Amino acid sequence: MKKKVIEKKLEDKIQSSEKLNNQNFISKSIYGTILIYALIIVEENTNSSFLQVVLSIIFTSFAIVIAEFYSEIIAALFVKKRRLIFDEVKEIFKETIPVIIGSQIPTLVFILAHIFDFSRKNVFLLTKLGGIFALFLYGYLTGKNMYNDKKKALKVGFINIAIGSGIIVIKALLH
């Protein structure tokens, strides 16, 4: 009996950890997506070449990841009140990777658009649609995890589009 209780507690901890990792992945991906799409809206009104836009996206993504990594390291040092061991630093680095994943959809779109010779207008349109889809998907997955109901998950997906798009517009206007 005691063994089953321990096994159940261990299983609950594993499931809780998996949910936290999924939550972290989605939240960091949303963060990266929002920041990069604000940049894209600003870039759309410049005369930058495709290459310049792609490089801007890539370097901005890396800057965001470095800032995220640094802030997480500082937070861990503050909480632990000691130097971090290599495995802790490695884990923090792994937790920041979704930021760059969420921000690279536009890079892929720009590269494919360059290969297939899309017009500048169409590239930016496709990129924005990709961002809207990504925001919807992150919201939908969150809603599915919260409610296990497709209608509610769809609602959360659309709410995520609205909130994310609002943040992107505000950020772009401040540039």
Overview in brief:
89% of the residues lie in helices and 0% in strands. It has 175 residues and is mainly α.
What order do the helices and strands come in, and which of them pair?
Elements: H1 2-44, H2 50-80, H3 86-102, H4 105-115, H5 120-147, H6 150-174
Helix pairs in contact: 1-2, 1-3, 1-5, 1-6, 2-3, 2-4, 4-5, 5-6
Order of helices and strands: HHHHHH
**Residue windows where pLDDT falls under 50 for at least 5 positions:** none
From the N-terminal CA to the C-terminal CA, the straight-line distance is: 62 Å
- Report the sheet-strand fraction: under 5%
Largest sheet data: none
Radius of gyration: 19 Å
Number of helices: 6
Helix content: over 70%
Q: What is the number of domains?
A: 1
Which descriptor suits the 3D outline? globular
The averaged pLDDT comes out at 84
SS-based class? mainly alpha
Q: How many strand units?
A: 0
Transmembrane segments: 25-42, 54-79, 99-116, 122-141, 153-174
Keywords: Membrane, Transmembrane, Transmembrane helix
